[in-house]
Design goal:
73% helix; mainly alpha
Length: 212
């Protein structure tokens, strides 16, 4: 990706996130949020609840901590320390960025049937941001590395499916609006674009090179 293209993408995503935040604060998403939840709520039953709780775990705080420790240990025993540490650093940035946005926008959680309990603000979805960042980095490594193309395609489909199920689980469990999910996708994409810019063009850290 060229530097100018990267900057344009950052500007577009930043503008889009600002617009989404304004629409959230002015309750312009209410109709579509209610519409989406009315359909998702039809899926609620004990079996589905356990399934969606399972998928929701893959972007939870506990999962992020376990994944970070695993990556740090893995990077210590391999020659690719930069990627392991870089991955954890980006996850930390994601959490901090999410919490900052939540405090600024201060949107209350949905006032509906919450199957699980969350105490902080709603917009943007932290689980969505985490799973998007994890998925994007994993897909980057997979497509950058060696291997048969059809295997990469299958893995890509599975990772994208997992990400979608994590996002859907947050609506199903009653802790996020659909617009929170959209905001999470935009915010995480913006963060990844900024990180890519600084790693590649600003500081020229070889994080995104094949053999690091």
């Amino acid at each position: 990706m060229k530097k100018r293209t990267n900057i344009i993408i950052i500007a577009i995503l930043a503008l889009l996130l600002i617009i989404e935040a304004i629409l959230v604060k002015t309750n312009c998403f209410t109709h579509i949020d209610n519409y989406i939840y009315s359909h998702v709520s039809k899926l609620i039953n004990p079996i589905n609840t356990n399934i969606f709780k399972f998928f929701s775990f893959f972007a939870s705080d506990i999962f992020v901590i376990i994944l970070s420790l695993f990556l740090l240990m893995l990077s210590f025993f391999t020659k690719k320390k930069g990627r392991g540490v870089g991955f954890v650093f980006i996850l930390l940035l994601t959490v901090l960025f999410n919490q900052g946005l939540k405090l600024i926008i201060a949107r209350d959680r949905p006032n509906i049937n919450q199957i699980v309990t969350e105490s902080n603000y709603s917009f943007p979805s932290g689980h969505t941001m985490i799973i998007v960042v994890i998925s994007a980095l994993l897909l980057f490594y997979i497509w950058q590395g060696k291997g048969k193309k059809h295997i990469k395609v299958i893995i890509t489909i599975l990772i994208c499916l997992l990400a979608l199920l994590v996002m859907l689980s947050r609506i199903y469990l009653g802790v996020h609006y659909f617009s929170d999910i959209i905001g999470g996708i935009t915010a995480s994409s913006l963060l990844l674009s900024i990180v890519y810019y600084y790693y590649t063009f600003k500081y020229k850290v070889p994080y995104f090179r094949k053999n690091n």
